[in-house]
Design goal:
Blueprint (H helix, E strand, L loop, with lengths): L26 E6 L3 H5 L1 H10 L7 E5 L5 H10 L4 E7 L2 E7 L2 E4 L7 H7 L6 E4 L20 H8 L7 H15 L5 E4 L6 H16 L1 H10 L5 E4 L7 H9 L8 E4 L3 E4 L16 E2 L3 H25 L5 H6 L1 H15 L11 H12 L8 H5 L2 H19 L4 H14 L16 H11 L4 H4 L2 H4 L6 H17 L1 H9 L5
Parallel strand pairs: 1-2, 1-6, 2-5, 3-9, 6-7, 10-11
Antiparallel strand pairs: 3-4, 8-10
Helix pairs in contact: 4-6, 5-7, 6-7, 6-8, 7-8, 10-12, 10-13, 10-15, 10-16, 12-21, 15-16, 16-17, 16-20, 20-21
Length: about 500
């Protein structure tokens, strides 16, 4: 049955569906980046509130700024912006239709409709999931990258911006000039200090064209930090077929694990939904929660996805079942990552490693190594290298993390050990591939990518270990190299 408002009542009884009157919902949030994660996570929390009779004036309007977002918009509007969420658990599967999104802003090159929507006084939160690499951050300094062509365009053309951040600046200018007041900018991406980074991007971009507006944004808008967590695979033919098994014709279903977490700084300048009533946590310790998650889960993903690609293991659960990749995860996590993580209420780093091991091993979640290995230039610099720097500074073990970097270099050479090609999987794949090929004979060529490694290339303990591991990978193969590392005593 084709998913729509008209067919909700005819869905099979086993499928949960909105019990609230969707026609009575009014918008309060514009969300830029309507990928799977948002619809399985933030949208679900709001849906749960609406089921309690709350937050009916906080419905979501979807938005995008790239041409490829147009296809997603068409698919969602064709089914009244409803999404089927399919929970995948080893004990069984269940489906639920989420209805907290009620519209999708038209997508135009100049972003006029988006600017107008965000300038509407009814919109009190502008949220984003635009990936870790989408915030125009210099990977070495972590400052704002004012040299990017998109940013230069928006600084020169503030009324017809190309980026989501330029559109936010333009909308905030209208709100200030009209006396409407600010909105909260809410990043929902896997970035440590994601709210602070969003503030940096928006304020810095505004300052390039209108310093007074930048000061107004900085003084009046809030950008709460948050930690988001739920494993959400990409949607493909298997997921479409799974929705059909439930009796639903949904063109954009979402599968997800039986776990969600959302920890949010309570810093909203124009009000907010009571997400805590749906299971979210408001806390002033977001940094500790996000450090635990980013270092153990997100860095852990890179620990296993890169060797998975090189050894032709297609899924994350398959990586965990692989005797040496799974053992690599456990050894690196317990010896080199967990020691740099603080406990949070109700969870020690060691217990969180156990939890992530279980979640990654769930065979019902068909999460591909390719998806997880995507955009390593952002994920290694954001998730792995900060731990490695801590280890070097504190003189703790870094052999495993260094091996992880060598495996990434091996992966970016572009072939697996079985001879098959690895398709480009990074915005900077061409540059990475050139460096990886050069590093086959001269390993330090990989570390000379200053935009990635900065001063690390001159850290003797790291550079020497990297050269040793990458040389061994090419000479003896990854399996033998992993056995060698796994046989080493801690320290």
């Amino acid at each position: 049955m084709r998913l729509s408002n008209a067919t909700l009542g005819a869905l099979p009884d086993s499928i949960k569906r909105p019990t609230y009157d969707r026609s009575a919902l009014t918008p309060g949030i514009v969300h830029i980046g309507l990928g799977n994660f948002h619809r399985a996570h933030q949208s679900w929390y709001l849906h749960r509130l609406m089921e309690q009779g709350l937050a009916h004036d906080w419905a979501i309007l979807g938005a995008g700024v790239r041409p490829y977002d147009k296809t997603q918009r068409e698919k969602l509007l064709a089914q009244d912006c409803l999404t089927t969420l399919i929970e995948l658990d080893p004990s069984g599967k269940s489906a639920e239709v989420v209805g907290s999104m009620i519209g999708y802003v038209p997508i135009e090159d100049s972003n006029g409709p988006l600017i107008a929507q965000m300038a509407d006084p009814a919109i009190r939160i502008v949220a984003l999931t635009v990936t870790e690499g989408g915030y125009y951050i210099d990977p070495v300094t972590k400052g704002f990258d004012a040299t990017h062509p998109d940013i230069r365009h928006d600084a020169a053309n503030p009324d017809s911006p190309r980026t989501a951040f330029g559109a936010m600046v333009a909308a905030l200018k209208l709100r200030r000039d009209r006396g409407v007041g600010p909105f909260t900018g809410q990043s929902c991406d896997n970035l440590q200090g994601n709210g602070a980074i969003l503030r940096q991007t928006v304020v810095s971009l505004a300052r390039l064209s209108d310093p007074d507006l930048a000061d107004w944004i900085d003084a009046n808008c809030t950008f709460p930090n948050s930690m988001v967590d739920c494993i959400v695979p990409a949607t493909g033919p298997k997921e479409l077929a799974l929705a059909a098994e439930f009796g639903i014709d949904d063109q954009v279903p979402v599968t997800h694990e039986n776990f969600r977490q959302w920890v949010i700084e309570d810093d909203f300048c124009a009000g907010r939904p009571d997400w805590d009533r749906a299971g979210a946590t408001f806390s002033d310790r977001v940094h500790d929660y996000e450090t635990m998650k980013i270092r153990i889960l997100n860095a852990g993903h890179q620990v296993i996805a890169n060797p998975g690609e090189v050894l032709s293991v297609e899924t994350i659960s398959g990586c965990m079942a692989h005797p040496r990749i799974g053992a690599l995860f456990d050894k690196v996590e317990r010896e080199e990552i967990a020691p740099h993580v603080h406990p949070v209420p109700g969870m020690t780093p060691e217990a969180y490693v156990d939890l992530i091991h279980k979640r990654f091993s769930n065979p019902a979640i068909v999460d591909t190594t390719r998806r997880v290995a995507f955009d390593g230039s952002s994920r290694h610099t954001g998730f792995v290298l900060p731990i490695l720097r801590d280890g070097l500074a504190k003189d703790t073990p870094v052999e495993g993390l260094t091996l992880v970097e060598a495996i990434w270099a091996r992966m970016c050479e572009g072939t697996r050990e079985d001879g098959t090609a690895i398709a480009p999987n990074d915005p900077f794949w061409d540059e990475l591939s050139v460096a990886a090929k050069a590093a086959r004979d001269r390993p330090r060529a990989w570390l000379e990518q200053s935009q990635l490694y900065g001063e690390l290339k001159d850290a003797p303990r790291f550079a020497a270990a990297f050269e040793r591991w990458l040389t061994m990978i090419w000479a003896e193969g990854l399996e033998t190299t992993l056995r060698t590392y796994l046989g080493r005593a801690p320290g």
